[in-house]
Records
---
Amino acid sequence: MATLSSLHQKGSKFRQFLRDYSHMVCKLTPFSPRLILFAGHAGTGKSTLAKRALPLIIEKTGEDFFFLDKDTVYGEFSAHVMALTTQNPNDRDSPYYLENLRDWEYQGLIAIARENLLLGVNVILVGPFSKEIQSGKMFNAKDLGVPPQTNIQIAWVDLQEDEAKIRMEKRADPRDQWKLAHWTQYITRRIDPPIHPVLHRFDNLLFNEATFENLIDQLIQ
């Protein structure tokens, strides 16, 4: 049987645990959750910029964010499916992938983001999203199915074609093989995004700290 002393000791340890854990609890923003998207074509540096932006965004807003990158979420899954179907785990450009897997990956990403936003959790989302941006879907909370009060901001990462190719060759990601081997065909898909008040373009050719900080300020407005 537990003594009063042992119960008191356990209670003290539990209160200390709560104090230690309190700083780790996610701060929710249910009245106006943020969805910040880092988008752009392959090899432009979306993931690198998003990871660099995350601590600045947290510092400037005082809010927490859920970080969601398409390659992390679906990389292994897509590789397995494509190995079973086209016998090429690195295939992200064939008609089979584009017709049977691509849209479902993006729908899944948006569903994960939606679930967090409905809970009041801000989201930083990383992926090309060129099709969804061209259609206008990413600008509209209703079309996305996210809370209507969601503050949507998009960073479109630009990089000229030649430099993007150089960086893709340098990083040697097997998923870029088709693009590099069919570059003339691939670049027809590198179209500019539409002009929209919530879409902010960032030229990532020569990184500039002041320009990057200005981008952050635009994303958290």
---
Amino acid sequence: MQDTYKATQRIEPVKWLIAALETGLGLIGALALILYFYTGSFAGAGQKLDAGLKAIWLFVAPFLGQN
């Protein structure tokens, strides 16, 4: 009798972490490029990106117990 058991695929956390970081950096890069075309300069894009990230942090921080 032949064994029909097939091993399940193992999830490799390091590969998932790298993929998540690549995705996050790609999205931030795309957002910076869009803001660059919108503002006309990297300085303006950086200011808008900083303001957006700060606004997101101010919204999320109370849920994480940060002040």
